[in-house]
Amino acid sequence: MWIYEKKLQYPVRVDTCNPTLAAMIIEQFGGPDGELSAGIRYLTQRWTMPTNEGKATLTDIGTEELAHWEIIGTIVWKLVKDAPKEAIQGTPFETHYVNHGKSPFPHSAAGEAWTAAYIQSKADPIADLHEDMAAEEKARATYEYLIRVSDDPGVNETLGFLRQREIVHFQRFGETLQIVQEEINRKKYY
C-alpha cells in the first residue's frame, strides 16, 4: 500500500523558456542512465536480495528514483510549456516536438526511446549491487554535465539536488553490498 502525497520531493523552479535545455535534460527522463531506468532496475532486483535490508534499500531507492523521474518530467515540461513553435524550430527539441508535442516522453537526448535493455537484473545480489553503484555514478556524472550546459539558475538548483541524491544512493548501495556480502559469506561457512 502506498500513500501518495501530491507534491514533488523537491520544488522545481524554472527561470527560462529553453527547448534546447529541455532536449538535453530529457536524457535523465528516458536515457539509459536516467531516473526511469534506475527506478525499474532497483524495483526489479529487490525480489532476489538475500536480506531484508537489501530488499528495503532497493525498494526505497527505486521508489525515490520514480519520484526523481517526475521531477525531471516537470523540468522538461516547464522549459517548453510556453515556448512558441518559433522557439522550438531549429533546436534539438524540434524532433521531440514533431513526435510528442511538448509532452515529456521517455527517450534519451539522442532521441532513442526508453527500452528495458537499459536495465539488468541478474538474480546475483553482488553483481546487481555493483551495477547499481555504477548506475548511480553514471547518473551523477550526467547531472554534472547537465549543470555545466544549463544557464537556468532554478534548473541548476534542482539538478544539484538530484546529483546529491545520486551520491547518497551510491553510499547506501555500498553499505548494502557489505551487508549482503557478509550474509553470503556467513551461509557458505555454516
Q: Can you give a write-up of this model?
A:
With 190 residues, this protein is mostly helical. It has one domain: Up-down Bundle (Ferritin), CATH 1.20.1260. The chain is 65% helix and 0% strand. The mean pLDDT is 95.
Short description:
This protein is mostly helical and 190 residues long.
Helical stretch tally: 8
Total domain units: 1
Name of the CATH class: Mainly Alpha
Strand percent estimate: under 5%
List the helices and strands and how they pair.
Blueprint: H1 19-25, H2 27-30, H3 35-45, H4 52-80, H5 85-88, H6 94-100, H7 125-149, H8 153-188
Helix pairs in contact: 1-4, 3-4, 3-7, 4-8, 7-8
Q: Any key phrases for this structure?
A:
single chain; 190 residues; mainly alpha; Ferritin; 8 helices; 65% helix; elongated
